[in-house]
């Protein structure tokens, strides 16, 4: 199953409809989406507006790949569960978010190779095909690394000296 999530705060019709068209074109019947309070509803994929946390967790555990907005919660969840993830950033100019912070996040994480990125709905079909053909996933722990904690502790200690 491919699990699509737009997060809990805002709809993201552009992402949902792009995946819906992709599923129709590929004859995929294994896509499930959490679409939020979207204006548009998909016609070729299963969907719900919201999922309670236990159901969301189950969907993440059972999926083979995640498609999401470029929100850190979705990205960290995928990496913690070692699931391949494709993100498409919301755009401030399209009023999908306040600014283009998700564009910056997507660009930065794409450079690490840990996250697949489609910068817009036109790039999404190819990026999703590529993700499924080469499903790389990396696992991160649920807590900050020892090195990060040490660096932050050192910064705080120097600031209080």
What are the defining features of this structure?
161 residues; alpha/beta; 6-stranded parallel β-sheet; 6 helices; 6 strands; globular
Report on the architecture of this protein:
The protein has 161 residues and is α/β, with parallel strands linked by helices. The protein is 43% helix and 14% strand. The chain is built from six helices and six strands. The chain has helices at residues 13-26, 53-62, 72-80, 101-112, 124-133, 146-159; strands spanning 2-5, 31-34, 46-48, 65-69, 85-88, 116-117. The protein has a six-stranded parallel beta sheet with strand order 3-2-1-4-5-6, sandwiched between helices. Strand 5 (85-88), helix 4 and strand 6 (116-117) form a beta-alpha-beta unit. The longest helix has 14 residues, at 13-26. The chain is globular, with a radius of gyration of 17 Å. The mean pLDDT is 89.
One letter per element, helices H and strands E, the order comes to: EHEEHEHEHEHH
Helix and strand composition category: alpha/beta
Strand order of the largest sheet: 3-2-1-4-5-6
Q: Catalogue the unreliable spans.
A: none
Mean pLDDT: 89
Number of strands: 6
Query: How many separate helices?
Result: 6
The outline comes out as globular
Q: Tell me what portion of residues adopts beta-strand conformation.
A: 5-15%
Q: Describe the largest sheet.
A: 6 strands, parallel
Terminal CA distance reads 53 Å
Q: How much helix is in the residues?
A: 40-55%
Radius of gyration: 17 Å
């Amino acid at each position: 199953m491919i699990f699509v999530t737009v997060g809990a705060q805002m709809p993201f019709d552009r992402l949902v409809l792009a995946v819906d068209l992709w599923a129709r074109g590929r004859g995929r019947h294994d896509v499930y989406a959490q679409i939020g309070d979207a204006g548009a509803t998909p016609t070729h994929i299963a969907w719900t507006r919201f999922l309670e946390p236990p159901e969301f967790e189950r969907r993440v555990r059972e999926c083979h790949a995640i498609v999401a907005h470029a929100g850190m919660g979705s990205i960290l969840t995928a990496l913690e569960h070692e699931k391949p993830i494709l993100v498409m950033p919301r755009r401030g100019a399209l009023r999908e978010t306040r600014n283009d912070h998700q564009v910056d996040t997507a660009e930065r994480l794409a450079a690490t190779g840990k996250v697949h990125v489609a910068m817009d709905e036109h790039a999404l079909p190819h990026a999703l095909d590529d993700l499924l053909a080469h499903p790389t996933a990396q696992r991160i722990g649920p807590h900050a690394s020892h090195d990060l904690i040490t660096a932050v502790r050192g910064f705080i200690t120097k600031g209080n000296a």
